[in-house]
Amino acid sequence: MRFVFLFSAWLLSFGVLAAPGEVATLDRSTWPEQLGNPTLFDVASRAEILMFAHVLLTSEALDEPALAQRLGLRTVNMASVNHVRQRLWQRLLSNYNFAQQSCDQDASFCFLVEDLPTLREQAAKFQIGEDSYYIKWAEPSRLFHAQYLDEQLRKAALFPQTSSEVDRFGDFERNGDEMHDRLFLLTFDSGANAMPDNTTWVTEYLRKSNLSGTFFVLGKDIQARLAERSVASLQSTYSMQCVGVQGWEFRSHSHWQDWQDSIRRSVELVKNKLPENYVPLFRPPDGQRRSDAEGFFKSQGVRVALWDIDAQDGAGKLKATQSAQRVLTLMLLWRHGVINFNVKQDGVKTALPWLITQTAQSGIGWEDCQSGFQ
């Protein structure tokens, strides 16, 4: 049994962090163990949960002007920030309760947590001793979670004026919160786009691995594909996979006058050409959609498909290995959810196999795409 030692010398300022907008990633080699069985997955999960909870608690000491400065914003919607913080705390508590069920097999990072007050109490004093087995992980993890929290709080501070995946507008939207512990759904944005496109490679890899994913496509890209090749070819590409829509073109659906037509046209095309693969899901580009759209989506029988684990692999923000390690760290933190890759980026051909290999013995499961957003 290894114990986590506390020490009082760790007084690093919450303010000494990266500039707003820097994307969080964590070198998983700083963690001293492989995720070779479900118990070791839980050990790593408890560690990431406690570290994020520590950073989240520390952030609550910032008043509104300090938070705005921290996030690089002029104004902050504190009601939205507080709502997101509350939801984060509830999920952390739920996740820690799941993660501590294996404490009789390995007591590392096991503390008495019975409710939210005791979780906050443990988060307040959570620090890693210099002689700990996990000391090489501690500071890189703290930096990761501080940067990742900044990402979430910045989106919360702008919500709902600038909509994103950080929060939902109603039950017609899904983001992975409802999934069972240890279950994850693979999703891919920008499928079937013009070159470069890795859709064929990814779908073949998934089929060989007995996995499925949900691919979100633009109507205009499917139309362009059909002008070049047969319907049968497109159907073969997406065999055993699911296809939802991102609209007719990749642009914000929050202020676009023709947003309803964009979705209707895309749904009609995909439903007609890929009837075996179509799922009634709309993924808003960049997460931007209208707050008053519930009636429209319900009339169309379509759900908004958000995500809660973002690879941040679009536009080359992270290298493939960094993106994969970010996803794995967030899988340990959130323990279930919807993973969002960008199939345009070549990095997906490195990140996805690495992720599948790293978690092969960890006791997690991959949700079937047909039931992922139910």
TrEMBL record:
<dbReference type="InterPro" id="IPR050248">
    <property type="entry name" value="Polysacc_deacetylase_ArnD"/>
</dbReference>
<feature type="domain" description="NodB homology">
    <location>
        <begin position="179"/>
        <end position="304"/>
    </location>
</feature>
<dbReference type="InterPro" id="IPR011330">
    <property type="entry name" value="Glyco_hydro/deAcase_b/a-brl"/>
</dbReference>
<dbReference type="InterPro" id="IPR002509">
    <property type="entry name" value="NODB_dom"/>
</dbReference>
<protein>
    <submittedName>
        <fullName>Peptidoglycan/xylan/chitin deacetylase, PgdA/CDA1 family</fullName>
    </submittedName>
</protein>
<dbReference type="Pfam" id="PF01522">
    <property type="entry name" value="Polysacc_deac_1"/>
</dbReference>
<dbReference type="GO" id="GO:0005975">
    <property type="term" value="P:carbohydrate metabolic process"/>
</dbReference>
<dbReference type="GO" id="GO:0016810">
    <property type="term" value="F:hydrolase activity, acting on carbon-nitrogen (but not peptide) bonds"/>
</dbReference>
